[in-house]
């Protein structure tokens, strides 16, 4: 502001504004609240601002002089001009001729027809549905018993009892939750969400009403097209006690937690049926939303207002962000910017930490919202809204801060400027230089030559060789089949009978005609004997090669029946081991046969060297190694299609030859580090973006 502005009278305030004193702040200074009754907004002001209002409609210079003469404050005209700008920005002064003209043009311009209006209100807008004050007063009188300490203690006790009872039925509870994820279950969850959030907002409204406040309206707020119930409790700033404001801000979460506890107890006590399912949906929805969403202080939900009231620190996000920005500018650029507020060093560090955590939380949240809106709408609109989310919530704040840095580049110290340019150069080298060569994969190590033995048909176990080294041709398992043995004995007896009869017929010249038929029957019995002996021979399982006989079931004993699907053991050749590994399509182009590999078995810190033997050229349709599937505790995510293990993401098979066996000589899961073609982080990112663009470019 120039000197002339300090000598011009301040504009008069609006006549409809109300001002009331509240409690003192944490430093003991008096605090007042300025109420805009038109917009139902409240502005918290301090001692200096209150003294300015007492002497308003004078020049800023005269106001500052009178305050310095009559109070202990020593303001300057610039502070008065700053307060005037604040009042004008929030339209708390009477509009002048120019302001009225701007309002008239805005009204005639039909701003709701402009793209800027829709862009802003698509991100957030409210729809008031009801003015509930009369009903809330009647409801608050009838539900007075809910606010008795005994009621609260009873609800807490019942909720804890419900948690204990569910802990004793945890497997059943978890199974019911998993089974509820269906189309019908999702609809039930949505209905439970409506019930829980309605009671949540009703909790805010009832507490505010009991404290003598007016709830202006209740309705639905749309945040990026996602509907959320809301309650206008802005009049809570009239309260002098921060504990009363804390009661209002925490009423919603306490209501949902109480509802979750009672629903949990109800589920534990109910028999299986529709009522128990309804209580399950209500309990899980209330617990999840109360603890995961509403309790977060990093967005302007209940957790934020609760924290603000506990600390008696209004506008926590804005003030912490302002301190964090100045801290970054002073630390990184060496700018000698003044602090936005005079906080002690310890509190300043806490505010900076809170602001950094808020930025990270919001970055993750806004990226998730951007992906959600892209998937929710049809592709063209989804791409546009995705770009809006990224530009509005992520790029715009970064651009504003970088713009501020650029405007003050001349104030940066030369040493700090050189340091920043050096750091920027290192980052560019780190991103652009192709230094990354390692490719990470998961795989299953197995012997190259291995044989898993099964019974050829249901049989009785007679003998099994102990685990250990075996030579080729040694018997591993001896099985028996009583039916085959009985048939063999009968066939052999038949052969002997036909042989004796055939000898008698050959001695008798009259029996030559019958001898041919007897010889044919003898041949049939002979073939039956050969078949039976062949089947018996198949029951004597021998080692086709020398190796290690492993994975025997210690509970098996002689005389036990074995089915055809029960593995008897594994014979492996421990001299040669291979790994079946899997990589994604982005890493496939960087691989070549013969590339060095280091395999780290699970639980073993020492790596086993090897090399890539074969690279698959087509995407696998099913995962052959069940031990790698997430369904069996493995690292690769699969989707359920019956018994088939179908990978959720595109995967390509690699065959790796190891130079040494794993320590356990068993099939072993592990991680692989493969030397691939060098590529920079920037090239990887660009290729990934190009792949996404090609995949999503079809309309």
Write a brief caption for the model.
It contains 21 helices and 22 strands. The strands form 6 sheets. A 6-stranded antiparallel beta barrel has the order 7-16-21-18-17-22. A 4-stranded antiparallel sheet has the order 8-15-13-10, with no helix packed on it. A 4-stranded antiparallel sheet has the order 12-11-9-14. The chain is elongated and about 150 Å long.
Using brief descriptors, characterize the structure shown.
single chain; 699 residues; alpha+beta; Outer Surface Protein A, domain 3; 5 domains; six-stranded antiparallel beta barrel; four-stranded antiparallel β-sheet; 19% strand; elongated
How would the blueprint of this fold be written?
Blueprint: H1 3-6, E1 17-22, E2 31-36, E3 41-45, H2 47-54, H3 60-70, H4 77-89, H5 97-108, H6 115-123, E4 124-130, H7 133-142, H8 149-168, H9 170-179, H10 183-210, E5 218-223, E6 226-231, H11 242-269, H12 274-294, H13 302-311, H14 316-333, H15 345-376, H16 379-407, H17 414-432, E7 436-447, E8 450-454, E9 459-464, E10 468-470, E11 475-480, H18 482-507, H19 512-538, E12 540-542, E13 547-550, E14 561-562, E15 567-572, E16 577-583, H20 585-588, E17 596-601, E18 608-615, E19 638-641, E20 644-647, E21 652-658, E22 668-679, H21 681-696
Antiparallel strand pairs: 1-2, 2-3, 4-5, 5-6, 7-16, 7-22, 8-15, 9-11, 9-14, 10-13, 11-12, 13-15, 16-21, 17-18, 17-22, 18-21, 19-20
Helix pairs in contact: 3-4, 7-10, 8-11, 10-11, 10-12, 11-12, 11-13, 14-15, 15-16, 18-19
